[in-house]
Amino acid sequence: MAVGGDRGELRTVSRGAELAELLECARMAGRSVGLVPTMGALHAGHRSLIARAVAECDVVAVTVFVNPLQFGDRSDIEHYPRDLVADLALCAEVGADFVFAPSVTEMYPGWPAPVATTVSVEGLSAAWEGASRPGHFDGVTTVVAKLFSLAGRCRAYFGEKDFQQLAVVRQMVHDLSMPVAIVGCPTVRESDGLALSSRNVRLTSAERRAATVLSRALAAGRRAVAAGDTGVDDVMATMAEVVATAPSVDLDYAVVVDPTTLEVPAAIVPGVPWRLLIAARVGPVRLIDNCEATLVTRGHGRRRPSVGAASVGAASVGAASAGTRAVGTRAVGTR
Ligand code: AMP
To answer: Can you list the pairs that 72-78 forms with residues at least 24 positions away whose Cβ atoms lie under 8 Å?
Structure first.
């Protein structure tokens, strides 16, 4: 299938070997390659990643693959929205060059037999989303490693919306010396603060309204940190209290973490871009969100954590040294 794009015709590729060859040819011709891995049902959040890749790279490939390895919940994958025609139109409009949309058996030839070789990032994958969705990050890192292997040397664009995923992927790239520069991109939100997500289309209008409590809880947590509330438990309780105002929202966790290790700190010291992470179930959908929270006091410049070797971009966070450290236990939440 071919759709016209601003930089030429968008080409749809379903074979991994073909994608690898196209991108290798581009590099041989001296062109830089950008990769945007997605599960499709593309929205303005994905669009921002693709647009940035188009702005920064000569050739851009968007991957559209609903990866069964990363879904523990059968109903979640069965109901995951899919619309390849609309995805191709968006990719063409933004100026991508290739869409790689493989079948499940193209990616995992023996499927549904178990995949023999998987990639697992210890430590960072264990807490938060990892604890609530066992095996999820192993599925993510396995598919992303395969995509990186096919794509070769490139810049790969990921959203901060999935903050833990971004940290886990950075760690994998660092640990396995992959020739990929990870670019973290800011979260795109609706005007009422709700982070865009492909899963939002599954919310009823009442659930959609209730879901704004996540970003409101983050805003309250961020204000508490900025106001000098250095008690980690107090900040987390503040976020949980906001979520409790929406009885239909079932909080999983609302935590303050170190942006590099994803561990809950002992105290919120000034100058560090702490991260607030939140996850909750709203109706049939599990939603996650996060934001930065910094306590700035006079005399303290802003300190960024150490940045991993492959890190690129102002919005990126480093995770080079985080992989094997234990992550603090879930601090606030109802499960
Ligand atoms: P997904 O299709 O949900 O796997 O997401 C593909 C990529 O888009 C991931 O790197 C996500 O973090 C990113 N992404 C999803 N939603 C947003 C958003 N609202 N803003 C920015 N990036 C996003």
So the answer is: 72/133, 72/134, 72/135, 72/136, 73/133, 75/284, 76/286
